[in-house]
Amino acid sequence: MRTRHREPQLLGNEATLERMAGILAARNIDPADAAAIPDGPEPFCPLDALPTGMPPRYQAAVADHPTVLDWVREVSEAAVAPSRGARRQVATGPSLLMAGVVGAGKTYQAYGAVRALVQSGVGVRWRATTAADLYADLRPRPGGDSERELAAVSRCPLLILDDLGAAKASEWVEEVTYRLINRRYNYELPTLITTNLAIRDLRSYLGDRVASRLAQMTTRVEFEAVDLRRRSAAA
Predict the structure, then answer these.
(1) d(CA 195, CA 101)
(2) How many CB atoms lie within 10 A of CB 109?
(3) What would the pLDDT profile of 147-164 be if each residue is shown by its tens digit?
(4) In the chain, what percentage of residues exceed pLDDT 70?
(5) Least enclosed by CB within 10 Å: which of 99, 112, 221, 231?
(6) How do residues 24-76 score in pLDDT, each as one tens digit?
(7) Closest Cα partner for 210 from 230, 191, 234, 235?
(8) Is the pTM of this model over 0.70?
(9) How far is the C-alpha of 7 from the C-alpha of 202, rounded, in Å?
(10) CB 147 within 8 A of CB 178
(11) Distance of alpha carbon 110 from alpha carbon 105, whole angstroms
């Protein structure tokens, strides 16, 4: 009986390596050069991805107000790692209320604060909205789920709530604002709030329940009564 001899077959990793060698040869790639290519993903810099969530006007914002920088430091120090060896994430921390005239630089400082947090090395899941846009999104409408949207905004680890007090006051606005602020107050979620109202006028617009919680959960800072936008335009 004649014995048939077969060429040895490459199995597992050996077969894979031979296929890889064939592919590299067909593309005129030296295997030594291919071995030098890192096998992991490119290093990811969170600061590079940050502009995708920011309006173009504020993508280069830099926080330089002393009180804002103090807030950044406190929130960064309060960040925790979800597991051993994982990157620290913003979870709880103080809130900041910035009051001042239109154009005083409050929104600029708020976005600059988010950039500063990312630069400090902590992970930040955040959202930004004006109060007027928030109320518009939450108004009942066919096919909408205002409760789900309010829950998402309320639970976001870091929220910029811009221009609080710019929308027309009503019982519905007061109720929505209370539910939002109360949730963030109870869970100690850091919130950056800007308003054109004087701090002394917040209670009459927001109501006692909201004003009381803001008084306890926020550090308050009143910006200089100068419209930087008009000053810049005049220059």
Answers:
(1) 8
(2) 27
(3) 999 999 999 999 999 999
(4) 74
(5) 231
(6) 566 665 555 544 444 443 333 455 556 567 899 999 999 999 999 999 999 99
(7) 191
(8) yes
(9) 86
(10) no
(11) 9
pLDDT tens, position by position, 176-212: 999 999 999 999 999 999 999 988 888 888 899 999 9
Give the separation between CA 23 and CA 229, rounded to whole angstroms: 60
Token pair of 176 as six digits: 């929505």
Sheet of 95-99, strand order: 126-130, 158-162, 191-195, 95-99, 218-222
Q: How far apart are CA 156 and CA 233, in angstroms?
A: 36
What's the CA angle centered on 49, arms 90 and 149, to 5 degrees?
Answer: 60
Query: Side-chain half-sphere of 199: how many Cα atoms within 13 Å?
Result: 14
Interatomic CA distance for residues 78 and 90, integer angstroms: 7
221-224 long-range contacts, CB within 8 A, separation 24+: 221/65, 221/67, 221/68, 221/96, 221/97, 221/98, 221/99, 222/99, 222/100, 222/198, 223/65, 223/98, 223/99, 223/100, 223/101, 223/104, 223/105, 223/106, 224/100, 224/104
Expressed in percent and rounded to 5, the helix, strand and coil fractions of the chain are 50, 10, 40
Q: Which residue has tokens 């999104």?
A: 137
